[in-house]
Amino acid sequence: MNERPKEQTLAEQAPANHECRLCGYVYEPSKGDGKGNIAPGTLFEALPSDWRCPVCGARPAQFTNIGATNAPSGFQENLNYGFGVNNLTPGQKNLLIFGGLGLFFLFFLSLYGLN
Ligand SMILES: [Zn+2]
Question: Is 2 exposed, middle or buried (0-12, 13-18, 19+ CB in 10 A)?
């Protein structure tokens, strides 16, 4: 193995997806290929040479490296979906709570002042 530039290190942590140039099927190493008995976590480079595109039967040579999907970021997006408040920092939560209390207090005072 030759020494690789540092930028390659990140790419290695998140294995690259490969897209079939014939049909657009994307092989994702994290998912593997259930049809082809490929276990999740199998790198594209580690696929058996007789592996074929599960959609159109193309050889691995017909696939293009399309780079890694940023898995942690995608996961983060799912977390954010519908749970916005849970992703606030404690400081932001305090601001929200005490800001809300302060507003309520001011509102209460203004009502009280009207009487
Ligand atoms: Zn294909």
Answer: exposed
Which pTM does this prediction carry? 0.51
CA of 41 to the centre of ligand 1 (A): 20
d(CA 30, CA 17): 9
**Residue 52 CA to ligand 1 centre (angstroms):** 8
Going by DSSP bridges, is the β-strand pair 17-20/63-67 parallel, antiparallel, or unpaired? Answer: antiparallel
Q: What is the DSSP string of 48-86?
A: -TT---TTT---GGGEEEEE---HHHHHHHHHHTT-GGG
Q: State both tokens at 8.
A: 């390659």
| Residue linked to tokens 């959609």 | 55
Mean pLDDT (whole number) for 28-57: 95
